[in-house]
Amino acid sequence: MLYDALRGVKVIDLSRILAGPWCTQNLADLGAQVIKIEHPERGDDTRGWGPPNQSSADGQIHMSAYFMACNRGKQSVAIDFANWQGAKLVRELVADADILVENYKSGSLSKYGLDYAALSEINPRLVYLSITGFGQTGPLAGRPGYDYVFQGMGGLMSYTGQPAGTPGAGPLRTGVAVVDLMTGMYATSAVLAALHQRDRTGRGMQLDICLLDVAVALNANQAANYLVSGHVPQRTGNAHPNCAPYEVFACADGYFILAIGNDGQFGRFCTVLGHPEWSSDERYATNSARLSNMQSLRPLITGILAVESRRHWADMFDAADVPWGPIHTLDEVFTHPQVQHRQLLQIVHHPLLGDIKLVRNPLLAGTPPEALATAPPLLGEHTAEVLAGCHSSTATQGARP
To answer: What Gene3D superfamilies does UniProt report for this protein, alphabetically (predicted)?
Structure first.
């Protein structure tokens, strides 16, 4: 099991919002001690990103759902490191830490003595992860930016949305902050690799992960399509640029996703629809041919699928091993038998906020219930506990329990 793989690893989390906290939540889920340093008055920005909020029984204490999504398993310590006493406390916590994660503008932590150069003098084994919008160097280094900016700037929104000339045409963002989330995942991988390297070399390093880099990398096959062909990808709605038919279709009582990934699957699909001859038609026999002729194939498919219910087609497709999928609302997601079997909904208890429903980390499939993460912390909830181990005579200055 991976839930205690990082037992004994100490992480100082100076990050806020989503990309950094998503990374440190992964580390916490894997068993690391994650100490989240928050401003005593404001805390992480996302503490105010509600409603919805979870509240205590008396209605006096609130925690935003957004904050809860990316901060389970952490200890919250309230320190204002803008004053020297607070910065000294952070440096003392860093002295025996393995990892520090921060997402401040490049260079801004140096005035507090919390930059990599200063902290590596204190702790040469420190793996120091910096997450920024544009990176530590370059013409835009130091410029702030949020996920939405990079969905546009990195190219993702240029080919996401309905095609030009159709209803609702125009660039479209994803429904979640996918660049932030993937930055957190890339950052997690980088940190774990750096820890492994440190075991060989005895020294830590600074990692420079930025949202722009991740946004460009996320273009994946769309970027490869452009780099190979020279053609700029356009918006294709729900249709796939490289596979066909691979899109959303309407049936008598709703919609479903058809995901034909090879010619054999297409042949079985044609048989289910009662038109096995389509699979030998030169216009549709290969994936390349189908991509070129979807304008004539799509109406043929649509006319047949629209007659029967989703349940009818689901049974037929499952029997023929044709890939398809429903489009679930989130209430349907969490009541689905496979989701329940995988135990993706986990419930943790907070002494003041009660039971909190969270989504289990996919890295931890099969984790026993007793190994569930602790609840997301209230602001400063662990200040006294964590700082009790500090040796500084100013251990309570710059902090607030």
So the answer is: Crotonobetainyl-coa:carnitine coa-transferase, domain 1 (3.40.50.10540), formyl-coa transferase, domain 3 (3.30.1540.10)
